[in-house]
Design goal:
With 372 residues, the chain is of the alpha+beta class. The chain has 2 domains: 2-87, no CATH class; 98-367, Endonuclease/exonuclease/phosphatase (Deoxyribonuclease I, Chain A). 39% of the residues lie in helices and 24% in strands. The chain has 12 helices and 12 strands. The chain has helices at 2-32, 40-44, 48-65, 70-79, 81-87, 113-116, 126-137, 158-163, 236-243, 251-283, 302-308, 314-318; strands at 104-111, 141-150, 170-178, 183-191, 195-202, 209-217, 220-228, 289-294, 312-313, 336-340, 345-351, 362-367. The strands form 2 sheets. A 6-stranded mixed β-sheet has the order 3-4-2-1-12-11.
Length: 372
């Protein structure tokens, strides 16, 4: 009898190992194949950190058992190592002294969620806290997503909001939505250094968009891309469904799950084409690129790979941990990024866990002196 149970246990473990290998392979596929062509694998990317850890456990298990099957799990880890290093980073290095860098520029990216206009945080002082936080961090270049103006409300009027950013002499404000009532929604790029050119980068059939801003930093010209890629557009009822989800096999649960997965699928496909467009703009840039923004997608995604291209990820350069930037009801993933030209080196990457938005701001220092 014990032999029978041992055989069943070994078969079960082998099956789990096979499933872990298949799913981590599908996650790898999802990062390399456009969701436009095959969309379901994009969902598996969300589970990649767990899948990677599970495969590590299988390596340990097969090593203890001294089984040749360890080769398959090791191969899976080796194949996906680049993906894992984008998800988790272990960096114990001390902060760099900016004064020792030749041409440093500090860059911040922050989705401010329309300066909390609907008081999602429950704190009416949140807009002022956002302004003060940015003043305290004092970046040289600031990329804001979900920038909001309402000229019929003094608190959100253009004059009032811009007065909060006086430390920046130059700005690029682009609005993709402007209403007759004076409301504006868009992207803002602020800079302490001269802006020499700027323009919006629009996408078809969506209100999400990007901008490019050419900035002269002490004689070094860079092109800064500020991005807000396709949102999932979950509604209040979707969040309510997630909060109360009990995984019952009933019509209401099936309908709620279908609605969420449908919206996710649409967003995956839109972001894929947007990422390809941004990637082409980066490749054709006459200047070294700095890319910021809310991608609404994880490092294990086609979007991340297409936008990043040959650029460096500031988080990988000097960040630590999992680096999740989403601040909401769903599990936190790193969906906000700062990339930069491969000839530059970045330092002191930091994520700030301030509850002023459904995103955490990120900051890094880039030395614009080319690496020799």
């Amino acid at each position: 009898m014990p032999k029978f149970f041992n055989k069943i246990t070994r078969s079960f473990i082998s099956l789990l190992n096979l499933l872990a290998l298949v799913f981590i392979g599908l996650a790898y596929l999802g990062a390399h194949v456009s969701p436009v062509h095959i969309s379901f694998v994009s969902f598996i990317g969300f589970a990649f950190p767990l899948l990677w850890v599970v495969n590590v456990l299988f390596v340990i298990h097969w090593a203890i058992k001294r089984r040749k099957r360890i080769v398959f799990s090791l191969a899976a880890l080796a194949l996906t190592w680049t993906l894992w290093s984008s998800v988790f980073n272990f960096n114990l290095g001390k902060k760099a002294d900016i004064k020792e860098l030749d041409n440093p520029v500090t860059v911040m990216s922050y989705n401010v969620r329309m300066f909390d206009k609907y008081v999602w945080t429950g704190d009416k002082e949140t807009p002022q806290k956002i302004y003060q936080f940015i003043k305290d961090q004092n970046p040289d270049i600031l990329c804001i997503q979900e920038f909001y103006i309402n000229n019929k409300n003094n608190q959100y009027s253009e004059n009032n909001i811009l007065s909060q950013f006086k430390q920046f002499k130059y700005k690029n404000l682009e609005y993709n939505i402007e209403t007759k009532s004076g409301k504006k929604y868009g992207l803002a790029t602020f800079s302490k250094y001269p802006i020499i050119d700027k323009k919006p980068l629009l996408f078809k059939n969506t209100t999400n968009f990007s901008t490019q801003t050419d900035i002269d930093v002490n004689g070094t010209k860079i092109r800064v891309f500020n991005n807000h890629l396709e949102s999932i557009r979950l509604q209040r009822e979707n969040y309510k469904f997630i909060d109360t989800l009990e995984f019952k096999n009933d019509e209401a649960t099936r309908r709620g799950l279908y609605d969420i997965f449908k919206k996710l699928n649409i967003a995956f496909e839109h972001r894929a084409t947007q990422a390809e467009t941004i990637g082409r703009h980066i490749e054709n840039s006459p200047y070294p690129s700095v890319v910021c923004g809310d991608f609404n997608d994880t490092p294990v995604s086609y979007v991340y790979r297409k936008v990043k291209g040959e650029l460096k990820d500031a988080f990988k350069e000097s960040g630590s941990g999992l680096g999740g930037t989403y601040n909401g009801n769903l599990p936190s993933f790193r969906i906000d990024f700062i990339f930069h030209d491969e000839d530059f080196k970045s330092y002191n990457y930091e994520k700030f866990k301030v509850d002023y938005s459904d995103h955490y701001p990120i900051l890094t220092t880039i030395d614009l002196t080319p690496i020799k």
